Amino acid sequence: MTLRIVTDSTADLSAEAVAHHGISVVPLSILFGDEELRDGVDITSEQFFKRLARESTLPTTSQPSPASFQAVYERLRDEGATEILSIHVSSKLSGTLQSARQGAEAVSNVRFRHVDSGTVSLALGMSVLAAAAVAADGGALDAAQAAAEDRLTRTHLFFALDTLEYLRRGGRLSRGGELVGTLLKVKPILTIENGELIATGRVRTRAKAIEDLLQRVSALRPITHCAAIHATTPDDLQYVVDRLDGMVPDAQVLTARITPVLGVHAGPGIIGLAVVTAGASPAATAPA
User: Fold this and answer.
1) φ, ψ for residue 144 (rounded to 5)?
2) Which residues, including other chains, have CB under 8 Å from residue 198's CB and lie 6 or more apart?
């Protein structure tokens, strides 16, 4: 049996990581009016944020079609895959998982599993890498799914935004809606709980927001894997990486620039951290 791993572009995995681990990525789409662009294929993060700054109307996003997944699944089958593990963005944030399942229904002679990650960005990406490592070692579908799900149970994601305006306009903020009016004037700290985005803190400055993220991560030690992501602030990303190197010296820090489709909802200035804890997942604690 030959196992292949599929995810979507919200995993924020670099092209190098995708190629190295043999992962297939199905892109979501960004729509500027009637113009549809495939995430990370027809438009890069650099191009997107430059365009976002000059657009008067906020773009929208669209999940991949079932036919898009079907085409990828059939290609993998024709290349020899007999098992496919497809891991995707939280079903409470996107209909991507539903499209993936529908696309699989039209593909014969392949054993499928679909995983709702309940998360997004590199928190999703790190679970995909765990599954890809099993596949690379010749492991089967059950083992790869178990590895991905185990990592997801131990993964925590926190991020700071310059504003909640983009999330508010896109309707992606699930809880703490009563805070939106005040959070729009400060730096909101968000996390994901039960597959949904929630506001979990607020600070007055960007510097304090970054320190808040780092304190939340520190409280979760011991940590086995780290990831840091940014949109338009590479200097902040480097600062966070340097701090993480001192905080968790034995954990390699994965970095990325947020993909355009997530940039639609997060806006410029986002900085995020995802960590995987060792052993049982501790409860995340807010900084004092």
Assistant:
1) -65, -40
2) 173, 174, 175, 176, 190, 191, 192
Largest CA distance in the chain: 55
CATH of domain 155-277: 3.30.1180.10
Residues of CATH 3.30.1180.10 domain(s) within the chain? 155-277
pTM beyond cutoff 0.85? yes
Kindly report, residue by residue over 47-71, the tens digit of the pLDDT: 999 999 999 888 999 999 999 999 9
Of 3.40.50.10170, 3.90.1150.10, 3.90.180.10, 3.30.70.100, which CATH number belongs to 3-28+63-153? 3.40.50.10170
pLDDT, tens digit, for every residue of 124-138?
A: 999 999 999 999 999
Tokens of 50: 């430059």
33 backbone φψ class: left, alpha, beta (φ>0; ψ -120 to 50): left
